[in-house]
């Protein structure tokens, strides 16, 4: 090895050889991010990584045979992820490395959310040249939006929103654009009396939720309904009066036409006059701050821009609530993650 290094240095010169190596490493960081993410998604979405987490290890050939997978492809993915330190592979057994275990913990929602918007990335050249248009020719994977967003929100937004709801002793919560029902499910876990009803307009999301509820509906305290929040139909007759309306990351999709949102809030206020509104929304971060702290908000802004979702500032949300006739009872803005939480009446 040493003789080869010396040969390269003699050929290129030390400075050029060192610079080339450093530059290659800088490029590799991005190429590897892409390759690693694609391999990780494939095994994550198949359920293989969760099996490793549950069982400690798996035999590759047995797993491939059990699920009818192409053993060579499975082997290639595992060998690569072993090479970059996310898995440990000692044939025939594979297990998660410590680094792999971490990716399955807090950052898991980032991978799920990126997978939700992957159709935009796959179609980037067509989006750029107008051959395809978001909405008309492609959309995000909505179930994965719900899953990824639900998992990430569990780390800060939901605890803040739930505290706002529980502190005010709400008993019957209607969640608009409920995603994977994670906000309501957590409330049902925390308080044995509370009930939650989620509405979402996407049939795939609602089907996913119905499967979840078949496993655990907290003794019928958690229910779901497919509905458009702008044409909210009658709610199930056995629901107690709604005393809280929540919406986490749902309203911004309509910020392009603020009057529609204002009208929605006014209509809801008329229909549910005693309800507390608890709203979590993206709040645009200061561009200078974001440049100094390039957090995951950068990717998030990109997802939103590619799928035509505006991001409002905290002040824009305050003005909108005021115009809808709502008063802010409590407000918490976290510039760090570009999110804000409002309790309103
Ligand atoms: C970004 S996700 C947020 C999901 C969930 N609230 C959360 O906290 O993770 C937005 C959700 O709102 C739903 N949604 C968007 N527009 C809607 C509408 N007009 N009526 C009902 N649901 C809607 C979407 O289907 C999606 O599940």
Structure notes:
It is a single chain. With 345 residues, the chain is of the alpha/beta class. The protein folds into 2 domains: 2-103, Arc Repressor Mutant, subunit A (Orthogonal Bundle); 144-344, Rossmann fold (3-Layer(aba) Sandwich), CATH 3.40.50.150. The chain has helices at residues 2-12, 14-46, 48-55, 60-67, 71-83, 98-103, 108-122, 124-128, 142-153, 157-167, 182-190, 203-215, 258-271, 287-292, 297-306, 314-323, and strands at residues 58-59, 87-90, 93-96, 172-176, 195-200, 222-226, 244-248, 276-282, 328-334, 339-344. The protein has a 7-stranded mixed sheet, sandwiched between helices. The chain has a 3-stranded antiparallel sheet with strand order 1-3-2. Helix 12 (203-215) links the parallel strand 5 and strand 6 (222-226). The chain is globular, with a radius of gyration of 24 Å. 30% of the residues are buried. The model has no long low-confidence stretch (mean pLDDT 96). Bound molecules: S-adenosylmethionine. Residues 142, 145-146, 149-150, 153, 177-179, 183, 199-202, 205, 228-230, 248-250, 253 line the site of S-adenosylmethionine.
């Amino acid at each position: 090895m040493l003789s080869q290094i010396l040969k390269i240095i003699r050929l290129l010169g030390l400075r050029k050889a060192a610079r080339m190596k450093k530059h290659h490493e800088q490029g590799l960081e991005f190429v590897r991010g892409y390759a690693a993410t694609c391999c990780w998604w494939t095994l994550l979405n198949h359920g293989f990584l969760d099996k490793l987490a549950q069982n400690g290890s798996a035999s590759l050939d047995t797993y491939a045979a059990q699920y009818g997978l192409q053993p060579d492809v499975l082997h290639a993915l595992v060998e690569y992820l072993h090479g970059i330190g996310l898995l440990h592979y000692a044939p025939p057994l594979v297990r998660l490395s410590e680094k792999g275990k971490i990716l399955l913990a807090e950052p898991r929602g980032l991978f799920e959310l990126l997978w939700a918007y992957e159709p935009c990335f796959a179609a980037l050249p067509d989006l750029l040249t107008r051959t395809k248009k978001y909405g008309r020719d492609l959309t995000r994977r909505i179930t994965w939006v719900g899953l990824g967003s639900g998992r990430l929100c569990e780390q800060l937004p939901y605890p803040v929103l739930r505290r706002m709801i529980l502190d005010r002793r709400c008993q019957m919560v209607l969640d608009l654009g409920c995603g994977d029902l994670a906000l309501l499910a957590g409330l049902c876990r925390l308080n044995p009396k509370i009930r939650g009803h989620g509405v979402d307009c996407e049939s795939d999301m609602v089907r996913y939720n119905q499967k979840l509820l078949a496993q655990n509906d907290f003794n019928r305290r958690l229910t779901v309904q497919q509905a458009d929040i702008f044409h909210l139909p009658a709610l199930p007759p056995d629901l107690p009066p709604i005393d809280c309306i929540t919406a986490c990351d749902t309203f911004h999709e309509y910020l392009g036409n603020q009057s529609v949102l204002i009208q929605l809030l006014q209509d809801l206020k008329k229909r549910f006059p005693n309800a507390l509104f608890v709203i979590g929304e993206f709040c645009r971060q200061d561009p200078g701050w974001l440049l100094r702290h390039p957090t995951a908000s950068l990717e998030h802004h990109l997802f939103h821009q590619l799928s035509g979702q505006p991001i409002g500032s905290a002040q824009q949300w305050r003005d909108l609530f005021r115009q809808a006739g709502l008063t802010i009872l409590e407000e918490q803005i976290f510039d760090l993650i570009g999110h804000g939480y409002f309790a309103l009446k």
